[in-house]
Amino acid sequence: MTIGSFQRNLHLNYVYMFLLSLRFDAAFWVIFLRSRGFSFAAIGLLETVFHLSSFISEVPTGFLADRLGRKASLAFGSLAGALSAALMLLVRNELVIAVAFCFSALSYTFPSGAHDALVYDTCLGHQKERDFTRIAGNLNAIWLAGASVAALAGGWVAELALGWLYVLNILMNLTAVIVIWFIQEAREDGTPADGGGEVRLAQKPGMVNGPPL
Fold first, then answer.
1. pLDDT tens digit string along 25-59?
2. Which of 67, 84, 96, 109 has its CA 20 to 30 A from that of 52?
3. Can you list the domains of the chain with their CATH numbers?
4. Radius of gyration (Cα) for the chain, nearest Å?
């Protein structure tokens, strides 16, 4: 991997992390469900579904990342996030909303074991392992900055229409899939996969599982 391709890959990972952090409904999903007529008890049950789904899917999604590749794991996570947001936006049935929360959990667990590994393998391929801690810190900072932007922007959008929060979530997740396509994935020894291939993402220090954001 050349210096140019290393920098390109790194910048794409930064862009991906920023997009991943843009969960515009993070501070407003309870308000949204209340506006749809859900009781607090039902909302608490849905959050329980989310956390149980996260717990149950953590190991299987890690296994799939090892089998299918890290880029695939990242893409599945973003697609799960888009599907979750679409169901939240379009459906009012409680059982379907519970399924949406399951997909939201998958949007966390699919990338949770893939991104750091992808970034580390990229560093390994360019003998820059010592830079990994600094890069991981940058990624965490980007996550926090993006989450702050999403909270501020989400408040403004929520004033207009709560449903637009989920439209934005769909757009950000689909954009993330496009970015993932251009990321090069390296094997665990740092050599490119498939002639320049794929990347793997692992959990960011700031990626704490929470309700469907």
1. 999 999 999 999 999 999 999 999 999 999 999 99
2. 67
3. 3-182 (1.20.1250.20)
4. 17
Digit-coded pLDDT (tens) for 135-161? 999 999 999 999 999 999 999 999 999
Helix (H, G, I), strand (E, B) or coil at 192: strand
- The model's confidence at residue 206, banded by pLDDT at 50, 70 and 90, is very low
CA neighbor of 102 nearest in space, from 179, 31, 48, 148: 48
Q: Are 145 and 153 in contact (CB under 8 A)?
A: no
Q: Nearest-5° angle of CA 198, CA 204, CA 210?
A: 120
Full-model pTM: 0.84
Instruction: Give the per-residue SS3 of 112-166.
Output: HCCHHHHHHHHHHHCCCHHHHHHHHHHHHHHHHHHHHHHHHHHHHHHHHCCHHHH
- Could you tell me which of 130, 132, 137, 78 has the C-alpha nearest to residue 108? 78
Q: Cβ distance 96 to 87 under 8 Å?
A: yes
- The residue among 21, 121, 130 whose CA lies nearest residue 71 is 121
